[in-house]
Amino acid sequence: MSLMPTAINTDVDAILRMGLAVLCGLAVGLNRAHHGGTMHPNRLRVHGLVALSACLMVLACGDHPDARSRAIQGVATGVGFLGAGEIMGPGRGGDVSTPEVRGLTSAASIWFSATLGVTVAASTPVLAGVALVLALITLTKRNNGTPV
Fold first, then answer.
1. How far is it, in rounded angstroms, from Cα 1 to Cα 115?
2. Distance of alpha carbon 1 from its chain centroid, rounded?
3. Which helix (H) or strand (E) element contains residue 88?
4. How do residues 32-84 score in pLDDT, each as one tens digit?
5. Is 95 helix (H, G, I), strand (E, B) or coil?
6. How far apart are CA 122 and CA 57, in angstroms?
7. Which of 90, 114, 137, 138 is the most exposed place for a label (fewest CB within 10 A)?
8. Helix, strand, or coil here: 4?
9. Distance (Å) of CA 65 to CA 70, 72, 135
10. Which of 109, 101, 103, 107 is CA-nearest to residue 140?
């Protein structure tokens, strides 16, 4: 016989999963915030919120596979719009009439943060942890400029 009712165990599990999703998103966001010559604190917050939102949407569906599938599809669609906003920026000198394509890695990182949130919610957190480590290795810039 369990000491705590099942609902409390479920709530504690959900809270832990949301916390882990935020930490995963913040880890990716920290990498992106320090990219380039200037600090970008918004990237830290965006990645954390994207991971948390994706996790929460999947958790809110409960255990019903069809509902989870629809939530994951919705996350993928919504994050695609965020990524597009990250990629399309003003042209050189701030010229908005001729947008430039840039920020592909940051857009992919936003997508990945959402995927981390979904994975933490729907799968084993170990899988999300391994994926996070692999992503951080991939995103880490080496001193000699060669990719990993």
1. 36
2. 38
3. strand 88-89
4. 888 777 777 788 899 999 999 999 999 999 989 999 999 999 999 999 888 88
5. coil
6. 10
7. 137
8. coil
9. 9, 10, 27
10. 109
